[in-house]
Design brief:
Elements lengths: L3 E6 L3 H12 L4 E5 L10 E4 L2 E4 L5 E2 L4 H8 L6 E3 L5 E5 L2 E4 L4 E2 L2 E2 L2 H6 L5 H8 L15 H9 L1 H13 L11 H4 L1 H10 L2 H9 L10 E4 L4 H10 L5 E3 L3 E6 L5 E5 L4 E9 L3 H8 L4 H8 L3 E12 L11 E3 L10 E3 L1 H4 L8 E9 L11 H16 L7 E12 L5 H13 L4 E3 L9 H24 L1
Parallel strand pairs: 1-2, 1-15, 2-12, 7-17, 15-21
Antiparallel strand pairs: 3-4, 5-11, 6-11, 7-8, 9-10, 13-14, 14-15, 16-19, 16-20, 17-18, 18-19
Helix pairs in contact: 1-10, 1-16, 2-16, 5-6, 8-9, 11-12, 12-15
The structure holds flavin-adenine dinucleotide.
């Protein structure tokens, strides 16, 4: 099989963003994707009049790379802000609203914090003490639980750090790295001595309502994948090609091998698959690089979409959803109120909900039968939201090993990976779990690595 100046392995958001950047720079490339479709974990199903994002469903506005890309692709006008605010958490089996003026539950104003029933009086006093607690940044990396416990006390670990900060990564607060995932919090501690002070300083002088924290294309995140694919030359993307190894060739450049026994040559290779997939691809090429990639663990998550007639749901669903601390002993870790958050996702007389299961807290959930997952999700969601009757639509989506975990020490591991990469001119790595985790990170890093690959190619061609 003939090659291309750049071969991209993996057609998720990282690989597609890289391909788009190469295309923009007129650098020929070949993108090889193992499955039959492009987009990776981004998948949207349209069933009856429901629009269901099976994997990711939102773009973070604080990190603009993905939103900027949507605008470049001509779909900026399709983005809608999240329509509701306010998150709930479960405490003692009941829904408690987190203070509106908060960032991940960390108070930015006092009065809503005083009245919330999400925390005990003792827990609130300990959390409020953060304001005066001297900043003592740890010398090295520390876990989310260690940081939040040190600053806000144990209750904040149980009710905020684990279900919210670690929960969005499907991870364990005792293991995830503060430095890799929340460097902004550490900067605030260093700069202001306190996160509450830092967040309050950030709010000062702000007038009017804050911008929505998330946006999404009105027809679901697949719109982004469709726009990317439409922007790329059709012959440059091949699906159904599973890459299983790379090797260096004498004059510089690489041979890329696929599982069907085909070989392609490339001046540069950009690996855009999860860390645990990259490890075997580079094992014979660079065992140390493979070893470092293999040390980035991943967790499996499950999402269950459930739709009900609106009249069957007692809760008015004014908000974005509910997170469930593990001490509550429920089968789900969160449920988001999709039809409240996003316009156009369900007929007006129905509601669409999405329950999350699995992750580090329940690794066995991915292996449950579809019926067992649905029974668990329906039971917990029904109990929390006061639902009578059965769902009119129910779907289960399994995401095996989909969330790579940036654990304590991750930045040290990344330094080793970057060190190995610097020994191989023309080899690049970009995927969730390396230099970021969300779509915005994947888009930014995919484009950055493609830009670096675009510099290599003309050098090789003229060498
Ligand atoms: C359930 C869930 C919800 C999420 N929610 C959000 C959210 O709301 N907002 C957000 O910003 N982020 C969210 N994320 C994270 C976000 O989806 C990911 O960061 C991002 O989509 C990962 O893109 P990627 O291209 O790095 O990896 P992937 O999407 O995993 O793509 C990798 C691609 O490589 C292909 N591949 C694998 N092996 C090979 C091989 N040997 N050869 C060729 N191809 C191969 C795969 O088939 C796949 O298409 C969520 C993730 C999950 C799982």
């Amino acid at each position: 099989m003939p090659g291309a100046p750049v071969v991209i392995v993996g057609g998720g958001m990282s690989g597609l963003a890289a391909a788009y950047e190469l295309c923009r720079r007129h650098v020929p490339f070949l993108l090889l994707e193992a499955s039959a479709t492009l987009g990776g974990v981004v998948k949207t199903e349209r069933i009856d009049r429901f629009v269901i994002d099976a994997g990711p469903d939102a773009l973070l506005t604080q990190k603009p790379a993905a939103i900027d890309l949507c605008r470049e692709l001509g779909i900026g006008h399709r983005l809608r802000p999240q329509a509701t605010r306010g998150t709930f958490l479960v405490r003692g089996g009941a829904l408690r609203s987190l203070p509106e003026a908060s960032v991940f539950g960390i108070p930015t104003a006092w009065s809503p914090f005083v009245t919330t029933r999400a925390f005990s009086l003792r827990g609130k006093l300990r959390m409020a003490a953060e304001y005066v607690l001297p900043g003592r940044p740890a010398a090295g990396d520390e876990s989310i639980a260690s940081f939040m416990g040190r600053r806000f006390g144990r209750e904040a670990v149980e009710y905020l750090a684990d279900p919210l900060l670690a929960g969005i990564h499907g991870g364990d607060a005792e293991r995830l790295s503060m430095r890799a995932l929340f460097p902004r919090f550490l900067d605030m501690e260093r700069r202001y001595g306190s996160l509450i002070r830092g967040f309050r300083a950030g709010m000062r002088g702000r007038t009017g309502p804050a911008a929505a924290p998330f946006v999404a294309p009105i027809g679901g995140l697949c719109e982004m994948v469709e726009a990317l694919v439409a922007a790329l030359p059709r012959e440059s993307c091949r699906t159904g090609v599973r890459v299983d190894g790379i090797e260096a060739i004498g004059h510089g450049g690489f041979r890329v091998h696929d599982a069907a026994g085909n070989t392609m040559t490339a001046d540069a290779v950009l690996l855009a698959t999860p860390p645990r997939i990259i490890a075997p691809i580079v094992r014979t090429f660079d065992p140390a690089l493979a070893g470092a990639c293999a040390r980035i663990p991943s967790v499996s998550v499950v999402t269950a979409a459930l739709a009900y007639p609106r009249r069957a749901v007692k809760n008015p669903l004014n908000g974005t959803g509910v997170v469930v601390p593990r001490s509550e002993g429920m089968g789900i870790s969160a449920v988001t109120w999709v039809s409240s958050k996003w316009e156009g996702r369900a007929p007006s007389d129905h509601v669409l909900l999405r329950a999350y299961l699995g992750g580090a807290r329940d690794p066995g959930a991915i292996d449950l039968s579809t019926d067992a997952i649905l029974a668990r999700a329906h039971r917990d969601v029904g109990r929390l939201l006061g639902i009578i009757g059965e769902p009119v639509l129910a779907r289960v989506y399994r995401w095996p090993h989909a969330n790579a975990q940036q654990e304590v020490g991750h930045l040290g591991l990344m330094a080793q990976i970057d060190d190995r990469l610097s020994a191989h001119s023309g080899l690049f790595i970009s995927a969730a779990g390396f230099r970021g985790s969300g779509i915005a990170d994947c888009v930014a890093d995919g484009r950055r690595q493609a830009t670096a690959a675009a510099v290599i190619v003309p050098q090789r061609l003229t060498a």
